């Protein structure tokens, strides 16, 4: 399971970075989402992997438990990255509609002189 | 428990939705409430400063959960100083935005402004690393809105780059925090400091990775050289009053470096000893050099000032990267100075941009050319670090503190050479802007096209400046710089006490974790 999760994080990160380096905003946004999935999985794994265990301490019996804090962190991170993705989609869309071009570079004269 | 500590976060958090929901169609009410909120924040910051001045560290436990488990806010000298700096700057910026009519060129300026303040003030006050991430996101998401305020094609395209770059930075921040958590099992800064000091040296490769990743994230915020590419395009294309507010945002990165690498990975911690200073100092020197060449090479006033902001971050980070109490005290003094200076020059740039456009080519004389030329001259003196203003005192303090370093010659050479280049660049810009128009032999040059104001066609969004008010915050910032020069003694005593507090983190840790005398 460790192999599965680690390779999932690795592949998602690699694909995300590849897409972020593309020239158009749409693949870049997809790449950012992939990267945020990778980050969320990674955060989840920082509490160590445990199957079928409650995230609650039991003070009457010494039963195994899983760390609840990374789950809370991941929840926060998911909400934030979801909101951020929505914002970047809106900004990219209005930039596309305004410039009639969804390239991410500003190599035209607008980049240097505006 | 001192409830004042949470007031700087709660007040803008309440005012911003109130502005959106209750008075979204009342321009004047928005202005009144926004200014009232910033004035109240100034008063709160004064209260906080006076309570932190004697060296007391106060802790606010959110939801009354004790430290390693709950989220805490911590007020010490450094936080109080940064909060005060932010609120004073915010007052100047909000007055300028109203005076120049910038707040009416798009919707929701004041609400976004309040959210931005909430994020910045929260980042300065929090004592929890994950909470720091959350406040970074709050200030970033507000800054995305402010950055594209007023619309226009170039600004939107620059906005996309800015947002994408910062989203990458946020992902990196989360990875760094996850790495730290997986090694130490905590994200409370004081608790992190205790755990990191206890770890055996041979078992800390992962922790060092986390520390370096975290430094990268803060370096993105602080625009350190290999990671500074976002800053000129973003600041130069943002509305200028917003860029003036952003002067504090790069200081958030510097603050975070100072906080994490004195408290958690401090100079005394064996595992990360010398790790940060070794990398940060050359990067800061290069940042300063790149910024000054940018000033010399800019063909546009807004870009020139943005590169000026980069040079000031370079000088600031040189002082921080020495990690000695003396250098840190100098860095804090320079941080106050450079925030006001960058903001001042952005506001002056806006005065120029409104009258003749930002391109550095000769044009016919603009209105109020003499007054604006004088203001630009004062701002340029402050930016270049010439006497008599506080930039000179600040650079002198930084260079004096660098004498103890082994790289003193490199530091002195870079600071002095870049000061000269900065003076050259600023005088070139000033003479093109203000002297060339009076050259009688010059043929009239057509006014460069302004392509930005697409939003102005909407009659609801026609700018509504308040005549005369735009100059008040500019003069106020100059007055602040003069005051900083005249009162350099008391300010330095405060920053020296702050540095002493930062380099003796045991007080902080004991207060936060409530373990008296351990």
Automatic annotation (TrEMBL), chain A:
It is found in: Cell membrane. The chain crosses the membrane at residues 6-21, 28-51, 71-97. It is a multi-pass membrane protein. One of its GO terms (cellular component) is plasma membrane. Gene3D superfamilies: 1.10.287.3510. Keywords: Cell membrane, Membrane, Transmembrane, Transmembrane helix. Belongs to the CPA3 antiporters (TC 2.A.63) subunit C family. NCBIfam families: PRK09094.1. This is Na+/H+ antiporter subunit C. It comes from Antarcticimicrobium sediminis.
From TrEMBL, chain B:
The keyword Coiled coil does not apply. The chain crosses the membrane at residues 6-25, 32-49, 69-97, 162-185, 205-230, 242-264, 276-297, 304-325, 331-353, 365-386, 406-426, 466-488. Residues 128-421 form the NADH:quinone oxidoreductase/Mrp antiporter transmembrane domain. One of its GO terms (cellular component) is plasma membrane. It is found in: Cell membrane; Membrane. One of its GO terms (molecular function) is NADH dehydrogenase (ubiquinone) activity. NDH-1 shuttles electrons from NADH, via FMN and iron-sulfur (Fe-S) centers, to quinones in the respiratory chain. The immediate electron acceptor for the enzyme in this species is believed to be ubiquinone. Couples the redox reaction to proton translocation (for every two electrons transferred, four hydrogen ions are translocated across the cytoplasmic membrane), and thus conserves the redox energy in a proton gradient. Belongs to the CPA3 antiporters (TC 2.A.63) subunit D family. This is Monovalent cation/H+ antiporter subunit D. It comes from Antarcticimicrobium sediminis.
